[in-house]
Amino acid sequence: MVTADKVQGLAKARAVYQDRTQRVKELQQEEKKIFGYLCIYPILELLTAFDIVPFRLFGDINEPVTKANNYLPMVVCPFLRSYLDLGLKGKYSFLDGIITSHICDVGAGVPAIWNYAIKMPYSYHIDTPHTLRESAQEHHRQLLDSFQKSLEQYTGQQLDPGKLVAAIGKHNEQRVLVRELYDLKKPDPPLISGVETIQVIKTIQSLPVAEGNQLLREVIADTKERRDKPARKTSRLMLWGSILDNTSLVEMIESLDASVVMDDTCVGSRPYFNDVKITENPLNGLASHYLNHIKCPRTFISDYNAQQKDYEGDLKRRYGYLGDYSREWHVNGVIMEALRYCDTHGYEVPSVKDYLNQIGLPGIYLEHDYTLGMISQLKTRVQGFLEIIA
Amino acid sequence: MYALRAEVDKMYAAGEQASTEGKPVAWVMLGQWAEPILTAMDVVTIYPENYGSACAAAGKASDAEGFPSHVCSYARNCFGYSAKMAELGGAIPPSAPMGGMPSPTVLVASAEICDARFKWFQALGRYFKAPIWTVESPYPGLKESLEEGTDERCIKYLVRQSREFVNFLEQLLGKKMDWDKLDEIARGLAGINRLRWEINRLRRAHPGPMHSKDLWSTITAAFFRGAESKAILDGFQKMLNEVKQRVENGVSGINVPEKFRLSFDGLPPWHSLDIFDKLAERGWNFVIELNYKPGTPVNIDLSKYPDPLERYVRERYQSTNNTLEVEYTPEEAAVIRDEIMRTGTSARLAVKHVLDCQCDGTFIHILLSCRSASLNLCSFQQKAMDILKVPALILEGDMVNASLFDPAEVLKKAEAFEETMAYYRQVRKEAGISW
Amino acid sequence: MFAIFFAGVDLGSTMTKIVIIDETELTVAATVKHTGAEHRRLASQVMKEALHTAGLTINDIAYIVATGYGRINVPFADRQLTELTCHARGVSKYFPNVRLAIDIGGQDSKVLQIRNGKLLDFIMNDKCAAGTGRFLEILAGTLGLKVADLGPLSLSAKNKVTITSPCTVFIQQEVASYLSNGVPVSEIVAGLHDVIASKVSKMVKRLKLEPDVVFTGGVAKNIGVVRALEEHLGCKILVPEEPLLSGALGAALLGKEIVLNALAKGQTVPKSERRLEEAKLFT
Questions:
Q1: Does C263 reach chain A within 8 Å, measured CB to CB?
Q2: Distance from CA of B245 to the nearest CA of A (A)
Q3: Which of B62, B84, B406 is most worth mutating to test chain C (most C CB atoms within 10 A of its CB)?
Q4: Most buried residue, A289, B202, B410, C77, by most Cβ within 10 Å?
Q5: Same domain, A169 and A303
Q6: CATH for the B3-140 domain, from 1.10.1740, 2.60.40, 3.40.50, 1.20.120
Q7: Of A329, A225, A314, A230, the residue nearest A273 (C-alpha)
Q8: A163-185: per-residue pLDDT in tens?
């Protein structure tokens, strides 16, 4: 097996993707602290500023859920069941701590179950609000003060504002680099496939930010020069929906006459398509970015003071950026995907469909259940959709 | 006991009347923060969640098209109902149970209790032009809730948010908030909560004086009828007196001798409540529930706070600190606090109702369409066994969709579970657990 | 003047259907066989039979399109298209004004929105047996009946039972309970047909119900289900004379379109090796 230290660029991304914990475990040998984090609302810059390496936590579609059956009923998000299952099996026992946030009902409840069933040296939960009203913005800002205090207690050090600004700089650099990578998906055929994109994103979420940035530069350089480009396909698709922490769905789609050239998912573009503004007190910019800029349906976006619902206007406010993406990346169809039992995305599906109808972009909704068997069942639906839009 | 049940019919009658008189109607969600503000501004409040349970009980639940099958069955009923209303140009569908829900002037969603609910009301934008407001509620993690400053921060957030809500309604309705009325309603609702809390303490008696079915019949009165809070306060006072008398006279909540004491954990199967009568015949007394618990009363000198919104929030905000102070002895509270600070959690908090009421078993109802109510039930089952040696009977079902719940299966398992409960009485005795 | 032929192979989970047409879209062969477990081998055998009926060899066929559940296991096919697109095309040949097609096969059911022979949208159910041919097979077994008898029997029922369970396994229990209570079998069968019609009508409601509505697939031969669907949807349901062939016919017609489009653009159409042998599991 090729190890990550022996290769560069895309090959390195693939190697790290196969064994995500290798690098962070090496860093632990060098006395670095590694904190796992769930979803994209924990404030990574604060961790980096305290010299803690953020390591994103996922499930494993190849590992049947067994132990988590004692702690979670079947009717909850299968990704979170898998995540808890891995924790119960000790796969995350190397972590020095875990940061969670109020992402959804189950995502907000699993940390307490984790604390009951698995002992962590450190854990912190950020109760991210759901609206963008002034009161919520202020509240979120204050939550960051508490998080900072907790990290200061843990590390025994005061937060160095200079280090925080530097951390924001590094993480912003990562956002810029990811956007640069996504620009390479605009040509026809795209220079990097949807499968490779997930591999790269998952990889940079497993490395310290500086190393992730270095890898991204190599991947971008590699991709521009590559001879083994993805084949040109008839359809260029955008993916919208809940977490896809493995490549199985996109592999299935790209085995057909389609490329996944853009996405609105969280192991994808969602964390990266806006930058943190550097404000006088850096925490202000961070609080604003993490609440306002991440376009996940867990946040209730609305014209809060509207006296009447303008449904079309509401759709544009919530999903207008999807229209922008579809134009910039020359998309001719959208795949809306959601995990079974994902309420956050499940309730959105009819509204997203309405928006796509509004802009004349065809879409299909696929529900999957975090098993490989289900992915193959969906193939006919995807192919049927491609036959419609071709 | 069932006098308060009548509030359900009154709620829908009030909705019908409001519609006829052109008064504003809000579709609201179960929660603490919206009801007093709305009713103080003379907005008639209707609760689509309750409508889901009413339709389920009437066997007339609607279904939703276009939404994944796993979404909340209260929401599915509401989507189906709303779609029919939209087809009829806003008119109430004929033969809608309880006279139906009138078209809303405003939708007041809530992220209290669960997030799925605000997604539900957001999706109603397909059917209604009514504006939408989402009430937020802070849910700090358990350890975080004990940090210095958390309670104040959360209270201030709720106060600021409530003020934003008042401003929004004043603009929408073209009238000003009646602060005196808000105060009156707020005291009424807080008073109702305190009475419910006192009643629940009496339910620890042997035999259990009040069955869960009785409790469920009072939900509407307890949460949804702010405008009538004075009259309802009276009703709950009468209920408290009745329960006191039952305790003094050893009167049970069931008509046969109490053989087994159970807690019901999960939302009730509204479509199949008669199953409890069949279980009662076997001596099963459901003496307490996990859901619809009254909040722990907050002992506070309200005169210190001139702002009526702040008075209401401080009086009702549920903090871990207050719960530990009021519901536990100082020694117990210290142990729990230490556990939370070390491990981030304390299993004792989850099983308190089982302990207080000395239950022989827990009936766990895992709801196929409700993640927030079902999420913790498996770990709850573990905790009840680990700490209290109390076994669980687990059934899957749903609060509205009757086809997902099999009452016959419950009865089939009853006898075996009675043996299990009897066995664990012995196990508890050997473990030095008092019942 | 020489004739050109096109073939459609619909390799379903229960039945394998092959249709060969000529350039005038006249059917020159149509073969239907049970798929069984060895469907890879069977496609070649059925194709040989169809060719024999038409008096042709495989190389006489200008283009072969495979569709259905096992479409990737047809090594002699030039192209694979989903049964969704193929059914839409085939049904439109039978009924040019079709707007909605319902297809209930052995193990899945689908509803197709169609306009001028083109598929616009679809809903598939391939997760739940209730609502498919398999459902009726299982329940016929429980009732000791042949599947072919279910339709006429249900029409003789004065009433129909209400089945409340969501799942085939529990429905079997419910049926057993009705039987032991002496409920007439015809009424139970009518209730089962209602289950299918109810499930399908939910799928239909997610699209647009517009006539003409056509019903295909093996279950379309069951007059009881046809009537139950008409009751649920409130409209006339059209059934082709041979409801199993619309997928294969559609595949053949689409093959013709592919060839003619290529010819019009001066392009050649890539073809397969035309090996009439079983597909290998591993390459």
A1: no
A2: 40
A3: B406
A4: C77
A5: yes
A6: 3.40.50
A7: A329
A8: 999 999 999 999 999 999 999 99
